[in-house]
Structures are given as C-alpha cells and as structure tokens.
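INFO  loader      accepted 1 record
INFO  loader      residues=473
INFO  predictor   begin
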Amino acid sequence: MTRREATAALGAFGACLISVFMQMIDVTIVNTALPVITSQLGASRAQQLWVVAGYSLAFACALLTAARLGAILGRRRMFLWSAAAFTAASVWCGISTDAMELVLARIVQGVAGAGMAAQTIAVITATFHRDHQPYAFAAYGATAGFAGMLGPILGGVLITLDPFGLGWHVIFLMNLPLGVIAIALAWKYLELGQAPERPPLDLRGAVIATAGLFLLLFALADSQQAGWRPVHALCVVVALTLGGLFVAYERATRRRGGIALVRLDLFGDRGFAIGSVLVTIFFGLFTAFVFTVSILLQDVLHFSTLRTGIAMTPFAIGAGVGAVLSPILVNRWGIRTLAAGVAFFGFWVAVGVGYLFVGDGAVNLALVTGPVFLSGFGIGVFGVPLQPIMLAGLHDRDMGEASGLLPTVEQIGNSVGLAVLSALFFRAHTLTGSMIMLSAIAVAAVGLGALTLALPDRRATLGATPWTRATTT
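INFO  predictor   done
INFO  writer      dumping tokens
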C-alpha cells in the first residue's frame, strides 16, 4: 500500500469511527439528560419513552434497507447523504422547542444513523487488506462500546457545566462539529462506489422485516413504561409471525435465483451464527447494565449528574485498557480470553452487589474505583475481539450483507435485554430492585462466558496478521 493509499484508508476509516461514535453515544447520552428535558419541555410519559426509544426503533428498523440501498446507490453516496442527514437532525434535536418536535427529530436522526452504520463493515472490508481488518474491526468495536459507556458520563458533565448556557440542547448540538468532520473526511477519502452488479431493493422483504422489527421492539420498549399488557403480547406474536414469513420469503427468493435482503446462508458459518447469539446477549446485558447503574446512582442514591459521571469514569477507562490489550490476550489464549473477560465483568458486578448490601447503599467512590475499573476491563476484553472473530470466517464479498445484519442484531439485543430485565426486576426504583437486577446481570454474564467457549478458535484463520504479529515480533 502506497502512502497515498494509506492516507485515504485512514481518512475513510476516521469518518466511519466518528460516525459510529455519534450513533452510539446518542443511544445513552439522552438517559442522563432526560429529567431536565422532561422538565423544560413538559414531556408526557409517552413522549419521554419516544425521546429515548424513537431513535433506537428507527435505527434498528432502517438498517437492513439502508445496507441494500448502499449496495444499489453506492456506499460513498449513501454514507455522505446519511451523515449530512444525521448532522442536520442532531441540530434539529438541539433546537427543538417542544417534546413532540424532539421526538420527530430523534426518529429522523435514527433513520440517518442507520444509513451510516449499514455501510461501515462494507467500507472497512473494501478499504483494508484482509490482513489488517482485525485491527480495523477491533477499533470499530472499541469506539462503539466506548461511546455507549461515555454517553451517561458525558451527558452528566455537559448538563452540570452547561457550556455556553445551552442546557440540555448541547448534548445534540455537539454532533454538529463531529458531523462536519466526518462528512469532510468521507468526501475527500471515501472512494467506495456501488457494487459491479447492483442488487434489487427487495421492497416486499424490506416491508416485512421492518414491520416485524418495529412491532417487536415497540412492544419491548413500551412495556418498560406501561408494564406488560395484552397488546404487547399481541405485538410480539405478530412480530414473530412476520419473522417466520420473512425467513420463508427470503428462502423462496434465493430458490428462484433472486437476491434476498438477508443472506440467511451467512448463519451457516459457525462463527457468525454463534457470534450473532453472543452479540445479542452482550448488547442486551451492556445496555441493561448502563441503564441500571444510571437509575441506581441518580434515582436511588441521589448522585448529581456530575458525580454519576465521575463514578462511571473508571469503568470507561478500564474498558479502554481491556480493548487495547485484548488482541494480545486473544492471540495467546484464544476464545478463552473472551469467556474469561465477560465472566470477570460478572464477578465484579457481583462484588458490587455485595458491597451495596453490606453498606446499605452507602458508596465511597475512592473505595469502589478498583472494582469499577476491573468490571470495565472485562467488558473491553470481551466486546472488542468478538466482531473480528465472528466475521473472520466470511468472505469479503459477504461483508456488504453483514453491514446491515450485524448492527440489526446488536439493536435487537439492546431492546430485548433492557426490556426483559427491567420488566422482571426493576419496576420500582429501589436499592433492592437495583441489587436484584445487577445480580441477574452478573449471573447472565457468567453464563455468556460459558456460551462463548462454543465459538470456533479463529487464530489460525486470522493468520499472521498485525493482530498476531503484535505478540510475535
């Protein structure tokens, strides 16, 4: 690779990392600012739900279609349009003057975010040689995870410091400079165009998939606020029926020689199939953990937003350290590294529950810094190598299909994990409820570690890549 090609690759990759940072931080940053937003805009309970869930719902439902549109229109064009729309929607969120306007802006923001996210894996695959892709995917996963963890922390700091007197509006307006930089980098360096053979949109498949995802995720999101009701059960039944119909339709499309919206044969690869299950569970656990800790610290222990951010900073630092060391650890111990990492996270969460129980909710931030750091370290060790390992068995030509499918699986995990755990354990914001939910997360994390051992060891598949050379030279 020449210096010019390397510069172009890094520039395009920089645009992708900025975009995934904006997408993921906007999932969690709103949670911290929601009480202030509710107070100033007079948001109803339903509007509060849609400010948070509207973004995630729109994001998840648009991913598969956005991935196909990228293949038809060109990844570069789709990325640029989506980045511009996301930046504009973020500004719209930031200048909204009533709750319903903010909800609409968040939905548009979610659709635009999906447009960016659905191109990223395909861009990485086309931009980097196979030998360098593990590092690129690791950086992509680390950025996404770090942004999700940073959201509540940054939200608390910004609301407390109130820069320029913008109040809660700043959590959305900060995307303006980031979006401009991402657009500039993509405009200059992203050269990936449309596929040589443009596939059809598969509008019927897109409608079935979108309707099924919407009903499933809406039922799970709404049940968090209103409790489980018959209408939610009906939505889930219809969603599962549509899911079965979608699978049958996609298989029939393939038998007729057509190009299906989702390549179901990708799940024939053991690493991708098991990895998809792990990703779903992991993102569910991670989202539930962030949600639980935010509620525990602010609503139960009455921490300020700034003190909440300070309390969670060691977790983010630990995750960063784990992310940096994970390639070396995976090269030495393989899949056992991931299993140990997520179990390590579960162990320290359990230690935290014991501390809360013994101290009856009294928290000494200096005393808990170590355990919080170590729990984050376990998350970083597990989360960052997972995507490179599960994608290692796929051919480069399959990455375009994975671009929309993998983020969709992640978003389903976010919604399912949060809804199920909150419905079971967190109807009341109490110390006991918080400890029960954290205990459930700890147990599930250990179980996830055991399931991780079913992944194929892909060190041989990765070969003598920068991933492995880092520990052998």
